[in-house]
Amino acid sequence: MNDIVWIIVEAVAKVLFLVLILQLTAAATVYLERKISAFIQIRVGPNRVGPWGTLQPFADVLKLFLKEDIVPKAADKFFHSLAPIISLGIALAVWAVIPFGDYFMIGDRKIMLGVAPDVNIGVLYVLAMTSLGVYGITLAGWSSNSKYSLLGGLRSSAQMISYELSMGLSLLAVVMMASSFSLNDIVAIQEGWGGWKWNIFLQPVGFFIFLTAAFAETNRAPFDLPEAEPELVGGFNTEYSGMKFGMFFLAEYANVATSSALISLIYLGGWALPFSPEAIGMQEGSILFALLQTLVFVLKVIFMIFFFVWVRWSIPRFRYDQLMYLGWKVLLPLSLLNALVTAAVIVFAI
Amino acid sequence: MNNIKNTEAERLNFWENLYLPEIAKGLALTFKRMFEPKFTRQYPEEIWEADGAYRGRPVLVKEEEGERCVACGLCSRVCPALAIEVQAGETEREKERFPKLFEINMLRCIFCGFCEEVCPEEAIVMSKEFELVFQSQEEAILGKDALLVPISELQDRLEFLRQWR
Q1: Are B134 and B105 spatial neighbours (Cβ–Cβ below 8 Å)?
Q2: Facing residue for B39 by CB, picked from A42, A310, A311
Q3: What was the pLDDT predicted at B78?
Q4: What local confidence, expressed as pLDDT, does residue B82 receive?
Q5: Residue B121's CATH number
Q6: Which residues of chain B lie closer than 8 angstroms to A44, CB-CB?
Q7: Same-domain status, B29 and B82
């Protein structure tokens, strides 16, 4: 009985902490996006609110709270309000299985870093949740009762379906190597060899496929067709204003953070260090070592977020037929081949 | 030679068709850009000083004995936005006409500079002022007191006009 209370307290504390951290991450991503895009365009970027403009995203969110919330007369009110909740809720829900580090011990209690990190369906859960994210956008497009929104929503669903396949197949190769769906196990197989055992080196093709699919899944440039401003006004969020728009906005950046975290966990070694904890005089399971692991992981995530922003401001948007061509005729066969070769190597060579 | 490849995409070579090297090139370019010195001016702290060619708020030239304007009304006539209103008055001085009322509605003014171009006396010129803030519509209608500017402050513009007009 006492044990159950302790588990519930631990889970609730972790969830509260995670939701707070995620909102801050989304805010930090917005700031990074604005600053990096400014630097790429030889501008200075936000520098008025707070030191170096770091409080700019909070000012933006505050502004969105104060804005009028306009719902079109012909819109389906219920789904119009539901769509942003789905988008943001699912963007946050994915983080339930994402671990920040291995574990640390308090007394003889093993505390995993993450809400439910070591679940044996981690990868499947992530794929399922990111697929559900389409509903938010498609519902937003449909319920707005506007042709631009509808087109944006349709594009989003078509795009996500096309890229989910190659994403799943490239993950399949990694899952076969780890022979586990748990993200902790996937990180565990990347430890050792002084950092050369990362999946990016063992699965370079899979990495590129996953990276491309991740861009498409998060609706980021060069695959930001669902909200393509020059063609579709704002795509699915044309008819949204105030904090409902803000929720889509936060969801997009939370998704960027999610994809960055997944890429660093699955392909960049996560928190895996090239040396054993004893080599630097630390114990496995101590809080300090767990913090070091988290720091390594966070640095990788920040680098991936930087990469996402960097790509957005460098590469022009794909045309719709090019997007479909790339998804079905290039990435899908490549990922199938990749999965097949990996399976053959595992079966016959090891 | 008969070129049967008709679109740009068909003429790309293998590496260009692969996209990845080209994407890497693009990323390298934007990465280099990040470290270039910025051109941005931190506006309220660093104020920009315009030169003579700048067309800011139109003003009336004020000499020692008063305004140059003889209230001919040409500026009012030429103004495409109908921003200028002039009412003439008479005095006993040698230059007997003067504007009793001279108003420019800055909400209408489009800074085209026609008034300056048409003025036979070089009495209305475009100044360097660009920080125009008004709290109400009435405030934006500038009368003679706001429009008259001593000639010493307008030397740049007058020189520019003499040289280029």
Answers
A1: no
A2: A42
A3: 92
A4: 92
A5: 3.30.70.3270
A6: 38, 40, 42
A7: no
Residue B104 covered by a domain: yes
For residues A64 and A242, the answer to whether their CB atoms sit within 8 Å is: yes
pLDDT in tens, A208-246: 888 888 888 888 878 877 776 677 777 777 788 888 888
Distances (CA, A) of A235 to A63, A82, A153, B69, B92: 22, 17, 7, 56, 71
Chain A residues whose beta carbon lies within 8 Å of the beta carbon of residue B40: 43-44
Nearest CA in chain A to B29: A314
pLDDT digits (tens, 9 = 90+) for A44-90: 888 888 788 888 888 888 888 888 888 888 878 888 888 888 888 88
Q: Is residue B107 located within the same domain as residue B28? A: no
Instruction: Please name the member of A40, A208, A311 whose beta carbon is closest to the beta carbon of B34.
Output: A40
Task: Using alpha carbons, select from A123, A55, A125, A137 the residue that is nearest to residue A93.
Answer: A125
Asked whether residue B32 falls in the same domain as residue B88, the answer is no
pLDDT value, residue A115: 73
- What DSSP character marks residue A103? E
Structural domain count of chain B: 2
- Cβ of B7 under 8 Å from any chain A Cβ? no
